[in-house]
Design a protein that fits this description.
UPF0703_membrane_permease; 237 residues; DUF1980_C; elongated; 6 strands; alpha/beta; transmembrane helix; membrane; five-stranded mixed β-barrel; 24% strand
């Protein structure tokens, strides 16, 4: 690839990384701590792009000196910019129900059965992550959940005709994302759409099911209310 094309690619990639950091869209791909890796990397790429661009301009000037024109190079190399521009203009959304319905729950039998702290008595309902609720329901047999109204937030997916609440859990980035799933028991409103974000308030129920993908346990919650909410800035846990 010509050096001027290299400079443009580096500039686009570096600028794209800074844009993702500025808008917060980087949270669709990586954990929040990656912000402090993305910003320096973006700045470094832009700096390298500037140096490469200057060198390309100087090299072209030297090649033109005394000849009136530079050496021709295939313009098809500029087509390498197409996927870079496409990536910046059509950035994929955070993973949702499509991926969750095809991936087994992250809560597996190999999880540690450590003790769980008691939930506060002066908070009603108690907000919990789906992963915390699932772990308490399965590995602590709901002992710390009983007697409390619980608030969960996630998106809707369907296992057959049955709606479930889910959220993707990532260790590092979207490439290793796996869902945690919670089943609904009780009076569940009709018309829930896949990928719709909702806030669920309810109570622990000992009912459990099995994930159709990997056979692991899926806990349920006795539904009191289901309320639509906007998708959070960070859709992963």
């Amino acid at each position: 690839m010509r050096r001027d094309a290299q400079a443009v690619v580096l500039l686009l990639v570096g600028g794209g990384m800074l844009r993702l950091a500025w808008t917060g869209d980087y949270l669709d791909y990586v954990k929040p701590y990656a912000f402090w890796l993305i910003v320096p990397a973006g700045v470094l790429l832009i700096a390298v792009a500037a140096i490469t661009g200057v060198q390309a301009w100087q090299g072209r000037g030297e090649a033109d000196d005394g000849h009136g024109h530079g050496h021709g190079e295939p313009k098809v190399a500029w087509l390498l910019l197409a996927p870079v521009v496409g990536m910046l203009l059509v950035a994929p959304d955070a993973l949702g129900s499509y991926e969750a319905e095809r991936t087994g729950t992250v809560v597996g039998a190999e999880e540690s059965r450590s003790s769980y702290p008691a939930l506060p008595d002066d908070v009603d309902p108690v907000p919990l992550t789906l992963l915390d609720y699932a772990a308490r329901a399965i590995f602590d047999e709901g002992q710390t959940l009983e007697g409390h109204r619980i608030q969960l937030r996630g998106f809707i997916l369907y296992e057959g005709d049955e709606p479930q609440l889910a959220r993707m859990v990532v260790s590092c980035c979207a490439a290793d994302a796996r869902p945690v799933k919670i089943g609904f028991e009780g009076d569940v409103p009709a018309g829930l759409e896949p990928d719709q974000w909702v806030e669920v308030v309810g109570e622990y129920t000992p009912r459990q099911g099995r994930d159709e993908i990997n056979g692991e346990l899926v806990p349920y919650i006795e539904v009191e209310s289901v309320t639509g909410i906007p998708a959070p800035d960070n859709e992963y846990q």
